[in-house]
Design brief:
By secondary structure, this protein is of the alpha/beta class. The chain contains ten helices and four strands. Strand 3, helix 5 and strand 4 form a beta-alpha-beta unit. Helix 1 crosses helix 5 and helix 8 packs across helix 9. The longest helix has 18 residues. Keywords: DNA-binding, Phosphoprotein, Transcription, Transcription regulation. This is DNA-binding response regulator. One of its GO terms (molecular function) is DNA binding. InterPro entries: CheY-like_superfamily, NreC/VraR/RcsB-like_REC, Sig_transdc_resp-reg_C-effctor, Sig_transdc_resp-reg_receiver, Tscrpt_reg_LuxR_C, WalR-like. It comes from Winogradskya consettensis.
């Protein structure tokens, strides 16, 4: 449905064309490398490698290709749990290097405009989601007189800092477990310790703090700063 909708939206759009279609995340990364499109319109739920993993693969490869996530199951943010899921999903996309995030119900004209914006080097996030995220960021910004943000990390162990870096990059617990060669249960324990020590409500706040303290920077594919 998403692919058909994309083709219909681009039909007749001057200067835009679909140059390839992938059936899974691994194929998406391969096609991006071979075809070098200006923009890859990425779905989140994909076989073999999900959309966030594929986005990271494209971004970290240094390709001159930008990623716009247009998900068929964008969370609507109903209730506290829904809002948390929506926020984490969008921040995960941003941390992975995506330049845009839209739902499948975006009007064709807005989709075309978003693709043009991303291709030109800009960023696009659905207005409702962006508004909520800005409110969340405002809640987390330090006020005058607060201690330096970096001091907040002093109580973390080296492994907990590693886990925080992975969380900030949008990695799932399963992906972190593979990267650190530990079990998912161990990762969950570390994440819990990080949230408790830093007095954070959820992973969204952890992502914001990691960027705010300079532990990780947008597009940074290396390890934590020393």
């Amino acid at each position: 449905m998403l692919r058909a909708g994309l083709r219909m939206a681009l039909a007749g759009a001057e200067g835009l064309a679909v140059v390839g279609e992938a059936g899974d995340g691994v194929e998406a990364v391969d096609l991006a490398r071979r075809l070098l499109p200006d923009v890859v319109v990425m779905e989140l739920r994909l076989p073999r490698l999900d959309g966030l993993g594929a986005t990271r693969g494209i971004v970290l490869s240094g390709l001159p290709v930008r990623v716009l996530i247009m998900t068929a199951d964008a969370p609507r943010g109903d209730g506290a749990d829904g809002q948390r899921e929506a926020d984490e999903q969008v921040l995960g996309a941003v941390a992975a290097g995506a330049a845009g995030y839209l739902g499948k119900d975006v009007p064709a004209g807005e989709l075309v405009a978003a693709i043009r914006t991303v291709a030109a080097g800009g960023a696009v996030v659905a207005p409702l989601i962006l508004g909520r995220l800005l409110s969340r960021f405002a809640e987390l910004l330090p006020v005058a007189g607060d201690s330096l943000p970096g001091k907040a990390l002093e109580g973390l162990t080296e492994r907990e800092r590693e886990v925080l870096v992975h969380v900030a990059r949008g990695h799932s617990n399963a992906e972190i477990a593979v990267a650190l060669t530990v079990s998912e249960t161990t990762v969950k324990t570390h994440v819990g310790h990080v949230l408790t020590k830093l007095r954070l409500r959820d992973r969204v706040q952890a992502v914001v703090l990691a960027y705010e303290t300079g532990l990780i920077r947008p597009g940074d594919g290396a390890g934590p700063d020393r």
